[in-house]
């Protein structure tokens, strides 16, 4: 009898253990044991590896949350706790900055407002940005209060706009970053600043390397000559504002002067009394300089058209450069290639070829244009053919 009772007790205990093993743990999702175990092991390994390295694993949000520190053209340190995603490009002379911004793929999405562009053949930004019509186009003279209504988390300005617009924006607590884009050195520096703003420093380095490699490639072909052997060059900006025709020369510190020197020429205006901006010169002074080559820049009218007009002028026909067929229309597409715009590298290529024709005899300037727009803006062959080539103009080598 005792043996029977003991067997019954043992049988009850076994059945109880079986039912306990089949019951899900408290709070569980009833997952099969194999899946539950795999999940726990995976999580356990991640924690273990993080603890072993001494750091918690960084999530994508952690990486994006790292502060961005920028030192701008005025030497100001600007810190962003989160990446700026509502960027406004305001004030005057925005072409150079806009074109630099669009070498970054993020520009189209993050740029929400931009000042009016009024130079050259149409609007290049609109031509390459499919989202341009969604952006707010603002006036050059917009005030800080009006700009605040756009709700920017960053306003990018040329440094000369600091007093008129930048300081009032500071008072409103709106972050401002200043750039210059006036010389090659500033071009490289400001490109790095944009790389930080767009969180794409790698792209900034790619662009800078493209330019520096091109400069080295061009200058390596230029023959080593003494100053006496170099061509005397006059670069003139033609203007007919308010119906008054004027010819202007740039300051020595501007990129136009450095492009002539880097291309192997002597700027004949180096000893002139120059202002901080374009300085007017008359025909008597042009004749006195007696340049070997004259290059005409025109920002609001086709330079080809200006050249045709000058060739019909008896006063210009007596100049040596005109007699020797050395009067040139500085090339352009949407904008002229002489400026500290992204196109300055094309301007350097053009001048080097005109001043050193033998050294650049094999140059295919249209191929250079295609390479530029492919590498800098990612345009494909069809886009270049449809967007760029129809507006290409000037005395192309």
Overview of the structural elements:
By secondary structure, the chain is of the alpha/beta class. It folds into 2 domains: 64-213, 3-Layer(aba) Sandwich (Rossmann fold), CATH 3.40.50; 224-391, Rossmann fold (3-Layer(aba) Sandwich). Helix content is 45%, strand content 13%. It is built from 18 helices and 13 strands. The protein has helices spanning 2-22, 33-53, 60-64, 95-101, 107-110, 124-128, 144-148, 162-171, 184-197, 201-221, 255-262, 283-289, 303-311, 314-317, 320-323, 344-355, 365-377, 381-388; strands spanning 68-71, 77-80, 87-89, 111-115, 136-138, 154-158, 176-179, 232-239, 246-249, 266-267, 279-281, 293-297, 327-329. Strand 4, helix 6 (124-128) and strand 5 (136-138) form a beta-alpha-beta unit. The termini are far apart. The model is unreliable at 1-64 (pLDDT under 50).
Q: Any descriptors?
A:
397 residues; alpha/beta; Rossmann fold; 2 domains; six-stranded mixed sheet; five-stranded parallel sheet; 18 helices; disordered N terminus
Task: Provide a quick synopsis of the model.
The chain has 18 helices and 13 strands. The protein is an alpha/beta fold and 397 residues long.
């Amino acid at each position: 009898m005792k043996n029977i009772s003991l067997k019954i007790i043992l049988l009850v205990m076994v059945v109880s253990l079986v039912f306990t093993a089949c019951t899900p743990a408290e709070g569980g999702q009833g997952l099969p044991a194999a899946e539950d175990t795999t999940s726990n092991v995976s999580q356990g390994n991640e924690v273990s590896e993080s603890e072993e390295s001494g750091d918690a694993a960084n999530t994508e949000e952690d990486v994006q949350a790292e502060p961005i520190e920028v030192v701008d053209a005025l030497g100001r340190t600007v810190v962003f706790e989160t990446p700026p995603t509502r960027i406004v490009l305001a004030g005057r002379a925005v072409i150079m900055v806009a074109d630099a911004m669009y070498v970054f793929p993020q520009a189209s999405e993050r740029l929400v407002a931009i000042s009016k562009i009024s130079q050259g053949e149409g609007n290049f930004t609109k031509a390459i940005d499919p989202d341009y019509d969604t952006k707010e186009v603002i006036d050059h003279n917009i005030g800080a209060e009006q700009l605040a209504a756009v709700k920017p988390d960053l306003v990018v300005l040329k440094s000369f706009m600091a007093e008129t617009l930048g300081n009032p924006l500071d008072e409103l607590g709106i972050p401002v970053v200043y750039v210059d884009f006036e010389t090659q050195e500033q071009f490289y520096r400001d490109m790095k600043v944009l790389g930080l703003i767009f969180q794409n420093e790698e792209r900034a380095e790619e662009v800078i390397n493209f330019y520096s490699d091109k400069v080295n490639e061009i200058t390596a072909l230029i023959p080593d000559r003494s100053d006496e052997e170099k061509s005397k060059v006059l670069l003139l900006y033609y203007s007919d504002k308010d119906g008054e025709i004027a010819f202007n020369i740039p300051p020595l510190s501007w990129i136009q002067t450095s492009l002539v020197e880097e291309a192997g020429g002597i700027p004949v205006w180096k000893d002139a009394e120059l202002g901080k901006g374009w300085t007017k010169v008359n025909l008597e002074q042009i004749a006195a300089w007696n340049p070997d080559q004259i290059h005409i820049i025109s920002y609001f009218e086709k330079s080809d058209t200006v050249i045709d007009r000058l060739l019909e002028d008896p006063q210009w026909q007596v100049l040596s450069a005109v007699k020797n067929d050395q009067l040139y229309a500085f090339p352009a597409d949407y904008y002229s290639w002489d400026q500290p715009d992204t196109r300055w590298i094309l301007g350097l290529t053009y001048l080097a070829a005109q001043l050193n024709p033998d050294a650049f005899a094999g140059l295919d300037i249209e191929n250079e244009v295609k390479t530029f727009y492919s590498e800098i803006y990612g345009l494909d062959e069809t886009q270049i053919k449809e967007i760029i080539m129809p507006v290409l103009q000037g005395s192309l080598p």
